[in-house]
Amino acid sequence: MPNLFWRSKDGRTINLAETPFKSEDEFERYVYDVGEILSEIFILSRQVKTPSRKDVPDIVGVDKENNVVIIEFKNQPVDEDIIPQVLRYAIWAETNPDSIRALWLEARDVPDDVSINWDNLSVRIIIMAPVIPVTVLRLVNKINYEVDLLEVQRFAAEGHEFILVNKREPETPARRKITKGTPEYDKEFYKEHRNNQSVEMFFAVSERIDKLVSDRSWPLEKKFNKGYIGYKHGFFNVFGLTWLGSKSFALFFKVPKEIADQYQPSDWEPHRYEDEWKQVLYKVDSVDVPLGELAPLFEAAYRNIVG
């Protein structure tokens, strides 16, 4: 059992007591209600019934990369048996696109920037549990789906709750068979799908963000995706660049709306705030976009995710 201590501003050291969830249902409801944990996922439905009564995915959603996302919760340390279970869910989703489309059509306020390819679904799996052993990580390397493994633990002290989210990474890079063809999201990929001049500007601005991150010694990972570049801390995006169309793109910052309003530059209007993704967008019109004016937002997004 981990020990977590909180050092308060007045110099006190408080031992935080681990407070396990009483049931998987409480665990699932808690994560669902604390929207920040799954801020990258738009939830379509919970406890989805499949033709097999045995198989009931906890949550089905979509992400900004147009993946269908299967989320499974376990309220105890998992073992290797979790892999065949989530594989059944993933295969069900992949082979029953009409069922997923029905969930999409029934959902309210679906994001405008998600476009699912119903004829060729891409499925992603997320497993959440208090402990995920290395034996599970090794099995993940052997399957063809994208899998995120998140250890989630709750601690409490003096009426406050603290949630520890730890993304578990495989010991060695996954060696997966290419079944559908996995594109490499680099400059050439973007140029095949976007305006070439805009792609050059997109990468030039990203290099300026690289320098900003480096100058501040922020431990962030830069990840290229189909529709955006994200600067991540573990499982969570902090800020980045996202495409709005084939020519236009924007900076995004993962902050609550009240923080986005607080740090809005006086002479630069935000493009929009996206409640479904909990991020504010600032459209980029030039490679010389004044990133300095958004320095408080970069800092706020970093504090919001990293602390």
Please characterize this protein's 3D structure:
With 307 residues, this protein is α+β, with helices and mostly antiparallel strands. It has two domains: 4-168, Trna Endonuclease, Chain: A, domain 1, CATH 3.40.1350.10; 187-306, Aspartate Aminotransferase, domain 1 (Alpha-Beta Complex), CATH 3.90.1150. Helices cover 28% and strands 28% of the residues. Strands 1, 2, 3, 4, 5, 6, 7 and 8 form an eight-stranded mixed sheet that branches. A six-stranded antiparallel sheet has the order 9-10-11-12-14-13. Strand 11 (236-243) and strand 12 (249-253) form a beta hairpin. Helix 5 (187-193) packs antiparallel against helix 6. The protein is globular, with a radius of gyration of 20 Å. Mean pLDDT is 90; it is low at 174-182.
Q: What structural class results from the helix and strand content?
A: alpha+beta
Number of strand segments? 14
Count of DSSP-assigned helices = 8
What percent of residues adopt helix (DSSP H or I)?
25-40%
> For the report, how would you describe the main beta sheet?
8 strands, mixed
* Amino- and carboxy-terminal Cα gap: 23 Å
CATH arch. level architecture of the largest domain: 3-Layer(aba) Sandwich
Average pLDDT reading: 90
Low-confidence stretches: 174-182
Gyration radius from CA atoms, angstroms? 20 Å
Overall morphology: globular
CATH topology of the largest domain: Trna Endonuclease, Chain: A, domain 1
Q: What's the level 1 CATH class of the largest domain?
A: Alpha Beta
